[in-house]
Write a structure and sequence with these properties.
It contains 8 helices and 3 strands; from the N terminus they run E-H-H-E-E-H-H-H-H-H-H. The chain has 205 residues and is mostly helical. The protein has one domain: Transferase(Phosphotransferase) domain 1 (Transferase(Phosphotransferase), domain 1), CATH 1.10.510. Strand 2 and strand 3 form a beta hairpin. Helix 2 packs antiparallel against helix 4 and helix 4 crosses helix 5.
Length: 205
């Protein structure tokens, strides 16, 4: 049994979406981790994330699979990445990963909901995710702004420390998955669902 589980495996084991408090906690931890990577240079940050590439550790930490180690993430790519535009700066690279991050967490709150059932989010979180999934990079929010929004929310609410939540989510996977069959390598559900999410988002923007 591996040290890490993917975010996709967490949702598969649970069989239902993340709740809003869990999203705020994970979004804060993920943004902090990505900013730390970004500070080391744009070449160190992968511009595409997905539920199958985010790794949660039993010790409460986060990591990310390298870009070359997973597939079926086209729907999580920012429009400029799909069009083949390289990241010309650290800011451009961050904007690309912000889009993927927004799509990833929207997938987490939309997970296995019937297509005609709306996603129930506060206007605060929904507005943040929509700003992260803005098709035009110049209008898309950046990592620092996401971090500031998360920190502000955490100061005004009583949420679990991210490390404790991550440990709990990993424990859920181990407890509920007797054979611990990885779902991250089977990207069909990730891809199909994210196409639906794109339609939902575009109906809101």
């Amino acid at each position: 049994m591996g040290t890490f589980v993917t975010l996709a495996e967490v949702l598969e084991a649970r069989g239902s979406p993340l709740d809003e408090d869990e999203v705020w906690c994970l979004l804060l931890a993920t943004t902090e981790a990505l900013l730390d990577i970004s500070k080391k240079g744009s070449g160190n940050i992968c511009n595409v994330l997905s539920p199958g590439s985010m790794l949660l550790s039993a010790n409460g930490s986060l990591a990310f699979k390298s870009c070359a180690r997973y597939e079926d993430v086209a729907s999580y790519k920012a429009p400029e990445v799909q069009q083949g535009h390289p990241a010309s700066s650290r800011t451009a690279a961050e904007k690309m990963v912000v889009y993927s991050l927004g799509m990833t967490f929207y997938w987490c709150v939309d997970y296995r909901l019937p297509q005609n059932q709306p996603v129930h989010l506060s206007s605060e979180l929904e507005g943040l995710l929509l700003s992260m999934c803005e098709d035009v990079a110049a209008r898309r929010t950046d990592l620092l702004s996401v971090l500031e929004a998360c920190e502000l929310h955490h100061r005004t609410t009583m949420l679990l420390p991210a490390e404790r939540l991550i440990r709990q989510l990993v424990e859920e996977v181990y407890r509920n998955s007797a054979d611990h069959t990885p779902v991250a390598e089977n990207g069909s559900e990730l891809t199909d669902r994210s196409q639906m999410i794109r339609h939902r988002l575009h109906s809101k923007i």
